[in-house]
Description:
By secondary structure, the chain is mainly beta.
Amino acid sequence: xxxxxxxxxxxxxxxxxxxxxxxxxxxxxxxxxxxxxxxxxxxxxxxxxxxxxxxxxxxxxxxxxxxxxxxxxxxxxxxxxxxxxxxxxxxxxxxxxxxxxxxxxxxxxxxxxxxxxxxxxxxxxxxxxxxxxxxxxxxxxxxxxxxxxxxxxxxxxxxxxxxxxxxxxxxxxxxxxxxxxxxxxxxxxxxxxxxxxxxxxxxxxxxxxxxxxxxxxxxxxxxxx
Length: 225
């Protein structure tokens, strides 16, 4: 039967190890044995004995959110079972955060992460208010971070000799050790004449890599609950 072929092609695979795995290009599966965290509203299915609870950001987090407009609405998932997470059919990928390291990421791209990771909201150095007030979430600790973006992400190496310039609407995140600053690629005269539409980029310099989504369209901010 055609239905049998369809089900075999799309059948979820049994979990082999606890934690996070990419189920397919649009979905992350998390085998929970204890606790993990995810974006509120991102769970699309689960099985087993799991409890979902909205996670407050605390007074400090709420103040940051009020000042910056950047928030990461989270829920904790506790128990034993499997849960699947997705965000508007965007592509999913996983970043490993090693002990003593950190990964800076735009909050709109966070889908789920290990409870062993902690995060804080931080101003992007060199951007300031003149750059639109760029604020990102900085993850530290040791664990896996599940991210989403439109299309397949580009991972571009950065070195001191070869800095990378990224459209501020396209940048997803970058590794620790990279310095950021705003770079103006047009003269004032060119901007007054209409320019190319590529006036300011985020320049990253140092040693590491930057993750970029293959789209320059300004993304819609997820609804804050």
